[in-house]
Design brief:
Length: 234
């Protein structure tokens, strides 16, 4: 295999599926059991903040218990043993990358264990419940905390860093994402445009398949460790 210097790994809900976490668009997925409009839009939050807080407080309990799987651990092995800069851009709000001791993780859609104050912008880290009566520890406003989850229509987080990484990378791995939500779905095009080799790891070929040089089909918990072993072989 070629020697790479700057690797970007984009992950989606599929990398956490083998840790028992629901993806979004599968038949029993999060978005099939809840209305996106009610729990993942600013309008939904304004309409019924308690309902949205309850949804994420419930999700927190499940995500807190989840354990990283072989795919997350393969990334740790790659970061520890492969001589390159390796950055992770994740669409996931779970903390499985952190639990697997992955480094350089950028949560562009936010994190389940964070809440942000709409009054002063302060971000609180907690797996505890946040609700309409939560007081911001910085500005002491009551009921202005929002789950630090990027809702549809909001700007993504860390985008300045992401743009820089996509331009610089010579290998782009997309793992467990359906490639239907933008702008994350367009990251592979940017990486390709700037000369990166692009691989897609998924259970199936996604609609984004035109921009990938290679498709590695199968569960990431199996395909990614095998890929990492190949990369470390030389
Ligand atoms: N290994 C590899 N891929 C898998 C696995 C697995 N074990 N299990 C599922 N997948 C793939 C599915 O085939 C699918 O293409 O993971 C993908 C999950 O797609 P989605 O459910 O659409 O999740 P994701 O792509 O992360 O969604 C992106 O949409 O709703 C928003 O903010 C939300 O971050 C989310 C974004």
């Amino acid at each position: 295999m070629k020697k790479y210097k700057n690797i970007v790994i984009l992950t989606g809900a599929g990398i956490s599926a083998e840790s028992g976490l629901a993806t979004f668009r599968a038949s029993n997925g999060l978005w099939n059991n809840h209305k996106v409009d009610d729990v993942a839009t600013i309008e939904g939050f304004a309409r019924n903040p308690k309902y949205v807080h309850d949804f994420y407080n419930e999700l927190k309990v499940e995500l807190k218990k989840a354990k990283p799987n072989a795919a997350h651990l393969a990334i740790t092995k790659l970061q520890n043993e492969y001589p390159a800069e390796i950055n992770i851009i994740t669409q996931n709000v779970d903390t499985l990358h952190e639990k697997a001791k992955n480094k350089n993780v950028y949560h562009i859609h936010g994190q389940i264990n964070q809440a942000v104050c709409l009054n002063c912008g302060h971000v609180v880290e907690t797996f505890g419940n946040v609700g309409v009566h939560t007081i911001c520890p910085k500005c002491n406003e009551i009921g202005r905390m929002k789950p630090n989850i990027v809702f549809f229509g909001e700007n993504l987080l860390c985008m300045d860093k992401v743009e820089y990484l996509l331009r610089k990378c010579d290998l782009f791995l997309s793992i467990g994402t359906s490639g239907v939500v933008f702008p994350a779905a367009s990251f592979v095009q940017t990486a390709k445009y700037y000369g990166a080799d692009t691989y897609e790891f998924n259970l199936e070929n996604t609609s984004n398949n035109f921009f990938f040089d290679k498709h590695i089909v199968g569960p990431a918990g199996t395909t990614l460790p095998a890929f990492v072993s190949e990369m470390l072989k030389d």
